[in-house]
Write a structure and sequence with these properties.
The protein is built from 9 helices and 4 strands, in the order ααββαααββαααα. With 195 residues, the protein is mainly alpha-helical. It has a two-stranded antiparallel ribbon. A two-stranded antiparallel ribbon has the order 3-4. The N terminus and C terminus are likely disordered.
Length: 195
């Protein structure tokens, strides 16, 4: 996987293009987890954690900052997506993708260029069998590209405890709002596109 993460859109944008807002929030949560900033909370939720000394949050990634700042109480992915800071950060991420020619604004759908980028990334970055030998950037790109399959292979304990797989933990099951859309399917309105 070396070198792939530095070319093209970042993992948050790749996740947005592949699976919509919910997928992008999941990648932001995993990024924060890899830095020790979040941990599993009660009943399949996510909570803040004390990051390792020297951990920087000045990365400029608005969605990661919004997710961490919105965890004033433990929350599941769906609840996080409803919090105003996260909604604003998702709107900003969609705007950046649209400005790069990867997303149409109305209706919000992937462009041909986005489909080509995803196809090329999948061809050059296969789904890893496990986290051994992968950098955090490579883990994030794999999660962005492959969703639940990568979550299960690369961060299985955190995925299960934090309710990241599918529609989430017990707090989120049975809710009617959209879920993580995998593969090439793309539902523009699922999971808060209109936010």
């Amino acid at each position: 996987m070396s070198g792939s993460a530095a070319v093209g859109p970042g993992p948050l944008t790749v996740a947005l293009l592949r699976g919509g807002p919910r997928a992008a929030v999941k990648v932001a949560v995993v990024a924060l987890h890899l830095r020790g900033a979040v941990a599993p909370g009660p009943q399949g939720t996510i909570r803040t954690s004390n990051p390792s000394p020297g951990t920087s949050f000045a990365s400029g990634l608005a969605l990661e900052k919004a997710v961490r700042g919105s965890l004033y109480l433990p929350a599941g992915v769906r609840e996080l997506m409803d919090r105003p800071r996260v909604r604003r950060a998702l709107t900003e991420l969609r705007g950046e993708a649209a400005a790069a020619g990867l997303l149409r604004r109305l209706p919000p759908r992937r462009t041909r260029a986005a489909r080509r980028v995803l196809r090329e990334l999948r061809a050059s970055v296969p789904l890893p069998a496990g986290p051994e030998g992968l950098s955090p950037a490579e883990v994030l790109l794999a999660v962005a590209l492959y969703g639940d399959a990568a979550l299960t292979a690369l961060v299985p304990r955190f995925t299960e405890a934090a309710g990241l797989k599918g529609r989430g933990g017990p707090q989120e099951r049975g809710l009617s709002r959209g879920g993580d859309v995998g593969g090439d399917a793309f539902i523009g309105c699922a999971g808060g596109w209109g936010a």
